[in-house]
Amino acid sequence: xxxxxxxxxxxxxxxxxxxxxxxxxxxxxxxxxxxxxxxxxxxxxxxxxxxxxxxxxxxxxxxxxxxxxxxxxxxxxxxxxxxxxxxxxxxxxxxxxxxxxxxxxxxxxxxxxxxxxxxxxxxxxxxxxxxxxxxxxxxxxxxxxxxxxxxxxxxxxxxxxxxxxxxxxxxxxxxxxxxxxxxxxxxxxxxxxxxxxxxxxxxxxxxxxxxxxxxxxxxxxxxxxxxxxxxxxxxxxxxxxxxxxxxxxxxxxxxxxxxxxxxxxxxxxxxxxxxxxxxxxxxxxxxxxxxxxxxx
Length: 296
Fold this sequence. Notes:
signal; 16% strand; 2 domains; ABC_Transporter_SBP; four-stranded parallel beta sheet; Rossmann fold; alpha/beta; ABC_transptr_periplasmic_BD; Hemin ABC transporter substrate-binding protein
């Protein structure tokens, strides 16, 4: 989903190393429009979603494993997890272009791909309303469909404005702790500069933790001090965490969220994708947080 701050290192293969050695620089790096859009490899769930939303899926020759929506995308060859790519895997589909979300990695693999003769376009990731529109415009430009991208961006802008207005009148903002995982009884939570932080704010909530960016393992004292009203989690990422395990954690149990056993679980790609479905995700999260207080 492109939203984790950790880097997953993968083994570098002989072919990749050979490409690096033979091509120290690439004349295609920094391009904004693919010369040939016939076989594009899309890396990043939101990138793939945008291509489909533009009606340009005919250009796709492959996807990464975070690209699971729409369902039709699952028929494309999977070149691996976007943060654990191997150059050989991406190059095996013979793409005429690589369209990758910022944060794809590991860095060594991306550097290899950028040094090949295949145009590589990196799409910035900003966890905001405008960041979504920017993605749409960049993807549209890359595929040579600027006009269609402008139309889609306008539609999404209107939907996002509407979704954000739904919680504008709420005075008592709920404090949300986004829990990525529980490892050895320790909570890995989202700080600033994360997709989770961006979504919490767009849905009218307050991130219960601050003082750090990315994802960080929190001490019991820090969780108690954060005083979350609600725990937010992905419904389909990593080993499942039951309510009993979550609220059995002494530090979580000591918070208002623990006392009320209040947890919201939403599909990770939908919640954190920052793509064409984000307005709907904002609405769903806001309703889960505030119920009837959400205004249409």
